[in-house]
Fold these 2 entries.
Entry 1:
Amino acid sequence: MSDRNYDVIIIGSGAGGGTLARHLAPTGKSILLLERGDWLKREPENWSVEEVFVKNRYVSSDTWRDKNGKPFQPGVHYFVGGATKMYGAALYRLRKEDFGELKHHDGISPAWPVSYEEMEPYYTKAEHLYQVHGARGEGPTEPPASEAYSFPAVSHEPRIQKPSDDLARSGYHPFHAPCGIILNEKAIPFSTCVRCMDCDGFPCVVHAKSDAEVIAVRPALEYPNVTLLTNAHAIKLNTNPTGTAVSEVAVNRSGQVETFRASIVVVSCGAANSAKLLLMSANDKYPKGLANGSDQVGRNYMYHNSQAVLAISREPNPTRYQKTLGLNDFYFGTAGFEFPMGNIQMVGKSQGPMYKGEKPLEAGLAPTWTLDRLALHAVDFWLSTEDLPKPDNRVTVDGQGN
Ligand SMILES: Cc1cc2nc3c(=O)[nH]c(=O)nc-3n(C[C@H](O)[C@H](O)[C@H](O)COP(=O)(O)OP(=O)(O)OC[C@H]3O[C@@H](n4cnc5c(N)ncnc54)[C@H](O)[C@@H]3O)c2cc1C
């Protein structure tokens, strides 16, 4: 391997790229991991609700444009570990039926080209690697799993145990949600995770969340054959002279363009940025972009179709780590509504400053209800259903590569 020739180049160090680097590291192949961002700085602001939620300290300053040309700041995170630095680490498998065709209220969710059975061994590996804590057999829609979780389910705090018990008494099937946190409840003095409120949406200052930096990139870098370049923005993929494969990656590093070569190049820049890189790599042979003979690159973009729903209870909710409860009783529909409705889980415990701009008075609450009091009494749910693939929901790039 010379300085610029590798067996494998992986572009992006998030859930996809970081995990792949960790998996390939023991093969001894020379691997270059390119990351456009830097290490996320460990600092007290990691756990500041004002900094993270109000000032968007860890959100990219990119400006993208919607279909009408209106600029917006996308919720993307350019760091070693990618979006997992901020994620909620609720590590669910899709259900077996999700891989087949499903009829939704708004249309058809087409079948995947792979089956759940083909994916299952990889789900198992990923759950072990990301130290997922969970319990099998509690949820009504749970797909078959070849192995138990390596770590026990995270216990509910009392205020969450209560709705769990109430739901079970009413005939539903609440379950312990699969959580990727580095928690040892049996030996708390030795546990990395301290069960705090600043997990979902925050970077973890004590590295107790199973994110791709902690679980994948750092361990991969212990192998001498793995090199990470940060602040290394891949701007174009070049093909070999016959156009049969990508052989080079052009990378912008502090304004200088450098070229790296490999026999395998993996594009794992996140859904929108991977499409962007392939589209920006158009050349004379492939004027519509690479891997885009089908004109599907960048199309059928699917997003979290989710909503936070806060139940304001008379009783305070002093829960710290709230993401332990899930409910899938309505996942595929219910009596009187035959279409899938999706998953109900808990969102991280809400805190007063997160409601900036909300008006508790208008929600019918008395003037004594400050935002902090509202947060203390909120039990915070997260409802998600599937976003259907639509060809016109798409990523495009303009002449300037934006
Ligand atoms: C607030 C939040 C909460 C979430 N909660 C959950 C959850 O609880 N459970 C769950 O399963 N998922 C959750 N997700 C989604 C999850 O984080 C993503 O699905 C996952 O990280 C996607 O992995 P990825 O590898 O495709 O992209 P990313 O993890 O985003 O990684 C892409 C990487 O590529 C880098 N990159 C981009 N372009 C280039 C380029 N041109 N050159 C070099 N590097 C580049 C980026 O900087 C980034 O590091 C959440 C996401 C967010 C933002």
Entry 2:
Amino acid sequence: MTIEGDLREKAKEMGMHLVGFSAIEKTSYAEIVRSRISQGLIPEEIVELTECFQVPDFFADPTRSLAGAKTLICVGQSYLERKSAPKDMSMRGVIGRHYWRDSYTDLVKKRDDMVKHLRSAGFKAEKAKVHPREAAKLTGLAWIGRNALAINPTYGSWALYYSIVTDAVIEPSQRIVKSCPEKCRKCMEACPTKALVEPYVLDVNRCLNYILEQRGPYPDFARIPAGNRVNGCDKCQEVCPMNSAAKPAPKHLTARELDPELVPYPKLDRCFEVTDREMADNYAHMDWFEPSTRFLRRNALIAAGNSGEKELLKIAKKYERSEDEVLKNHAKWAKERLS
Ligand code: B12
Ligand code: SF4
Ligand code: SF4
């Protein structure tokens, strides 16, 4: 069997949905990142926390991950599940689909097992520090949409990616030559905070996925657009016509079901009673920059303010007396909006 055939078999056995190959190539990632940082489109706070923004040259050149690398391998998994929302959503928030389960850890583990498998076959292999969207594009798994997401022909944009570099020589996969319909701008128009400032260009400061996870208070402009979101935002994917026929994940990534009162449609009043243990069990897999019950409450206060539910007014009034300035400020906002 060829190395390609063996890796495809291994991927299937592990339950990985996508695998593709490319010869080693440098990308323009570093220039793009530097230009976005200099324009203020990637805020300092996220640069400090994110390796790919600190050393973008490393991420633009796969040979920096492994000297002598011959092939870039990209692995991907869909996280799309058809789960219907509760009939009565009035007291519920919503969590972005990528957080419905611990999809990231699941794929990272499979990527690491694939590295071990290559090594056991006598090849050099390392996890690649390469932008996952670039890796998906180079290896023929996806093309890039105006919403900046990597779009796969079968699973749409609802997939996560990681990559590997190896000295094994593998036949490159055919790349996808595709772009968005010329006139389509649905993602840009539907974005609640108009964060997609140009096709393919995200102003991270305005993206709700960033705002909901950053420290400190929500900026004023984002509070009403946040709607009932408690974490994550899927709008630029939900409206994309390329996702209308997207196939759901063939199999759920991790077996563990999360507490249905907390994920994916958290009961807003429950968010204020959640314990550290429940937080760890249900929210620790989310990329919260500071995972804590405090951040869940902060986000739930904004969702409560946007809910129109008078029942949540007493919670807003209670937190308005909080000694925590951020909670106090959000509670005051929620109270005024609900009164
Ligand atoms: C930081 C980060 C964020 C930040 C900033 C996102 C951003 N766009 O920069 C925040 C917190 C806002 C975020 C949000 C989201 N993220 Co995020 N995020 C990352 C992270 C860690 C780095 C991203 C990065 O390098 N950005 C830098 C800029 C330069 O990259 P970019 O916008 O992707 O730009 C590329 C393309 O636009 C393209 N491009 C640029 N110009 C042009 C022009 C043309 C013509 C074309 C064709 C292409 C093109 O090239 C650029 C890269 O070289 C990666 C994971 C990782 N380890 O690298 C995940 C990642 C990008 N995120 C992911 C996800 C799922 C999301 C969300 C959907 C989560 C959610 N539901 O809320 C949103 C999507 C928002 C959006 N529309 O992009 C997935 C995306 C999977 C996919 N199918 O594309 C990734 C790849 C994680 C993973 N391992 O799979 N994320
Ligand atoms: S994730 Fe939400 S806020 Fe961010 S670009 Fe997409 S639609 Fe806009
Ligand atoms: S909504 Fe339209 S413009 Fe945006 S990514 Fe999808 S096809 Fe492209």
